[in-house]
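Re: How this chain folds, sequence and tokenised backbone to follow
How to read it: Take the token row as a discrete description of the fold.
Start of record: The labelled sequence and token lines come straight after this line.
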Amino acid sequence: MLGSDTSVLPGGKGANTAVAAAKLGAKVALLGAVGRDGYGELLLESLGSAGVDTSLVRRSDRPTGVAYIFVTPDGENSILVSPGANSALTEQDVELADARVLVASLEVPLATVEHAVAVAVERGIRPVVNISPMAQLSAETLAALDPVVVNEHEAAQLMGDEGDLRGLLDLGPRSAVVTLGARGALVIEADGTQQVESPKVDAVDTTGAGDAFTGALAAELARGKDLVTAAQLAVKVAAISVTRKGAQPSYPTADEVGG
């Protein structure tokens, strides 16, 4: 199988989410790990230029994590992730300062994520977890999430044969958001469900669109917006991101989304 050109760009779910939020004006710090290599330097430079505080990013003797992303002509992608340095992130590395929202994905060890959520709850910080890649969270962790963020495929894995997405709340989270690609997102709360439509765009590259959504969602929640209002901005941010190549370089500023 032959492809076209290869590009090396900064990425990773946590880093992407942090950059997306920071470009919208949120004050963001990233907790993660990079290796002492060129990829690590590239990532730290990208984070810094977006305004992300990298003081909590650990340096590891393991190589920086890498994602191999294959993009088809219609803009869809498939991804293979080698976590590298992030695999060594431990519970002892978790530091949460004065934050309003904690966002986590599962490209770091599950035990570390669950510990971070527990610390957030103790400190009155709103925990948001994107269950990607898929893993089984404890009942205690799920019960703390407000919201849990998943795409349709991840929702199906969580729920098994259950077809009604509202059933996600039966798993324990206080709220849930299901991203629906070009169709927007579904916001599920105890008092109802609302679909948030996405603007219609011509997709060039969908890489990192879900991370853009999660970052924008968290930024709005940190500003005190309700979940539906936060999702309305998040779908706009994700829609803009797919019209450009790459992940972090494709993320819009607040001015570009009119926020």
